[in-house]
Specification:
The protein is mainly alpha-helical. The chain is built from eight helices and two strands. It has helices spanning 8-29, 42-52, 67-70, 73-81, 98-122, 129-145, 148-155, 159-183; strands spanning 57-61, 85-89.
Length: 186
Amino acid sequence: MVPIVSLWVPILLSAVVVFLASFVVHMLLRYHWTDFSRMPGEDNVMAAIRKEGVPPGAYNFPHCSSPKEMSSEEIVKKWEQGPVGFLTVIPAGPPRMGGQLVQWFVYTVVVGILVAYVTGRALAEGVEYLQVFRIAGTAAFLTYAGAEPVMSIWHKRNWSTSIKFIIDGLIYALLTAGIFGWLWPR
């Protein structure tokens, strides 16, 4: 067993490397730039949302408050007529990425801590690189990519988009696993 405190270097280094890798994936490779499509009548939809004063948040439509309401004639009719969907509204204004980047970095540190915990409980000091790589990589992959299919299963996100995020998670997991294997206490 290896205590988390002796793994702070791979925790922080993997967080920094994954953070930088995500920059490369999202800003330089640009394969995520097709994750969303322009909505037909975008200006009209935006005007309607603005007119209703919809605050930032996550919404579904038609909305049901209970299982009983789901079977009501009114809701069934709305579902049949459509549209049916999910909508996320964020605050108005030009995108400001600072807060999201800070949250993303904190998340990569948390992933590093979780990987350190799992790997540190499973392995002892001095084990070979590949053993550390396997355990750390699996834990990191589950953390970075494990929930991505949920968005396609329940929220109808295109599977191609979820697969791209799973590939991202695999890249981040391999980098994390490599760093933990390299810096594992000998």
